[in-house]
Amino acid sequence: MNWGNIAGIYNSILLDLKRVEGVKMLALAGRDGFLIGEPANNDMEMLTLMSATMLRAAEKVTNKLEKVSPNRVIVDYEGGKLITAAAGQKALISVLTTKDASIEPIINELERAASRIKEIL
Fold first, then answer.
1. What is the rounded distance in angstroms from the CA atom of residue 14 to the CA atom of residue 112?
2. For domain 3-120, which CATH number applies: 3.90.79.10, 2.40.50.140, 3.40.50.1860, 3.30.450.30?
3. Neighbours of 58 (CB within 10 A)
4. Closest CA to 75 of 58, 62, 92
Protein backbone atom coordinates (compact mmCIF):
# COMPACT_ATOMS: atom_id res chain seq x y z
CA MET A 1 0.00 0.00 0.00
CA ASN A 2 1.37 3.42 -0.91
CA TRP A 3 1.06 5.51 2.28
CA GLY A 4 2.04 8.67 0.39
CA ASN A 5 -1.07 8.37 -1.76
CA ILE A 6 -3.26 7.65 1.29
CA ALA A 7 -1.90 10.74 3.06
CA GLY A 8 -2.60 12.76 -0.09
CA ILE A 9 -6.22 11.57 -0.14
CA TYR A 10 -6.72 12.56 3.50
CA ASN A 11 -5.06 15.93 2.92
CA SER A 12 -7.31 16.65 -0.06
CA ILE A 13 -10.40 15.85 2.05
CA LEU A 14 -9.20 18.14 4.82
CA LEU A 15 -8.19 20.96 2.46
CA ASP A 16 -11.65 22.61 2.48
CA LEU A 17 -11.70 22.49 6.27
CA LYS A 18 -8.24 24.05 6.44
CA ARG A 19 -9.54 26.93 4.31
CA VAL A 20 -12.47 27.82 6.60
CA GLU A 21 -11.89 31.17 8.27
CA GLY A 22 -10.91 30.77 11.90
CA VAL A 23 -9.20 27.36 11.63
CA LYS A 24 -5.83 27.70 13.32
CA MET A 25 -4.72 24.06 13.50
CA LEU A 26 -6.17 20.83 12.17
CA ALA A 27 -5.21 17.18 12.55
CA LEU A 28 -6.50 13.76 11.57
CA ALA A 29 -5.76 10.89 13.93
CA GLY A 30 -6.73 7.35 14.75
CA ARG A 31 -9.14 6.89 17.64
CA ASP A 32 -6.05 6.25 19.78
CA GLY A 33 -4.93 9.83 19.08
CA PHE A 34 -1.93 9.04 16.90
CA LEU A 35 -1.62 11.17 13.77
CA ILE A 36 -2.61 9.86 10.34
CA GLY A 37 -0.96 11.17 7.19
CA GLU A 38 1.12 13.85 8.93
CA PRO A 39 4.64 13.82 10.28
CA ALA A 40 4.41 13.94 14.06
CA ASN A 41 5.16 17.20 15.78
CA ASN A 42 4.64 17.92 19.47
CA ASP A 43 1.74 20.38 19.12
CA MET A 44 -0.30 18.27 16.70
CA GLU A 45 0.37 15.07 18.60
CA MET A 46 -0.66 16.65 21.90
CA LEU A 47 -3.80 18.01 20.23
CA THR A 48 -4.89 14.63 18.89
CA LEU A 49 -3.93 12.57 21.94
CA MET A 50 -5.92 14.85 24.25
CA SER A 51 -8.78 15.03 21.75
CA ALA A 52 -8.99 11.24 21.63
CA THR A 53 -9.14 11.07 25.41
CA MET A 54 -11.90 13.72 25.60
CA LEU A 55 -13.92 12.07 22.84
CA ARG A 56 -13.69 8.65 24.52
CA ALA A 57 -14.79 10.15 27.84
CA ALA A 58 -17.74 11.96 26.22
CA GLU A 59 -18.76 8.76 24.43
CA LYS A 60 -18.67 6.76 27.65
CA VAL A 61 -20.81 9.29 29.52
CA THR A 62 -23.40 9.81 26.80
CA ASN A 63 -23.64 6.09 26.04
CA LYS A 64 -24.13 5.31 29.72
CA LEU A 65 -26.69 8.06 30.39
CA GLU A 66 -28.49 8.50 27.08
CA LYS A 67 -27.50 5.43 25.02
CA VAL A 68 -26.22 7.67 22.23
CA SER A 69 -22.82 8.87 21.06
CA PRO A 70 -21.88 12.56 20.87
CA ASN A 71 -21.50 14.23 17.48
CA ARG A 72 -18.50 16.19 18.67
CA VAL A 73 -16.71 17.56 21.72
CA ILE A 74 -16.14 21.31 22.01
CA VAL A 75 -13.79 22.90 24.52
CA ASP A 76 -14.27 26.64 24.80
CA TYR A 77 -11.24 28.42 26.22
CA GLU A 78 -9.99 31.99 26.30
CA GLY A 79 -7.88 31.62 23.14
CA GLY A 80 -10.48 29.89 20.96
CA LYS A 81 -12.14 26.53 20.74
CA LEU A 82 -11.02 22.94 20.35
CA ILE A 83 -13.53 20.91 18.34
CA THR A 84 -13.14 17.17 17.95
CA ALA A 85 -15.39 14.94 15.86
CA ALA A 86 -15.34 11.21 15.28
CA ALA A 87 -14.70 10.13 11.70
CA GLY A 88 -16.23 6.68 12.10
CA GLN A 89 -14.93 4.03 14.46
CA LYS A 90 -11.30 4.38 13.37
CA ALA A 91 -10.47 8.09 13.20
CA LEU A 92 -11.10 11.54 14.58
CA ILE A 93 -10.53 15.09 13.39
CA SER A 94 -9.40 17.82 15.76
CA VAL A 95 -9.68 21.52 14.98
CA LEU A 96 -8.24 24.39 16.97
CA THR A 97 -9.92 27.72 16.18
CA THR A 98 -8.96 31.32 16.59
CA LYS A 99 -10.51 33.28 19.45
CA ASP A 100 -13.23 35.03 17.44
CA ALA A 101 -13.98 32.24 14.96
CA SER A 102 -17.56 31.54 13.98
CA ILE A 103 -17.87 27.83 14.70
CA GLU A 104 -20.95 27.08 12.57
CA PRO A 105 -19.06 27.04 9.23
CA ILE A 106 -16.21 25.13 10.87
CA ILE A 107 -18.56 22.49 12.28
CA ASN A 108 -20.38 22.15 8.95
CA GLU A 109 -17.15 21.50 7.07
CA LEU A 110 -15.81 19.31 9.90
CA GLU A 111 -18.88 17.07 9.69
CA ARG A 112 -18.53 16.84 5.90
CA ALA A 113 -14.84 15.90 6.14
CA ALA A 114 -15.52 13.37 8.93
CA SER A 115 -18.21 11.72 6.81
CA ARG A 116 -15.89 11.42 3.81
CA ILE A 117 -13.07 9.95 5.91
CA LYS A 118 -15.49 7.51 7.54
CA GLU A 119 -16.45 6.24 4.06
CA ILE A 120 -12.80 5.58 3.21
CA LEU A 121 -11.97 3.80 6.43
1. 9
2. 3.30.450.30
3. 18
4. 58
User: What confidence category does residue 6 fall into, taking pLDDT thresholds of 50, 70 and 90?
Assistant: low
Could you read off the pLDDT of 76-121 as tens digits, one per residue?
999 999 999 999 999 999 999 999 999 999 999 999 999 999 998 8
What pTM was estimated for this model as a whole?
A: 0.90
| All structural domains of the chain with their residue ranges | 3-120
Exposure class string for 99-109: b at 16+ Cβ within 10 A, else e: eebebeebbeb
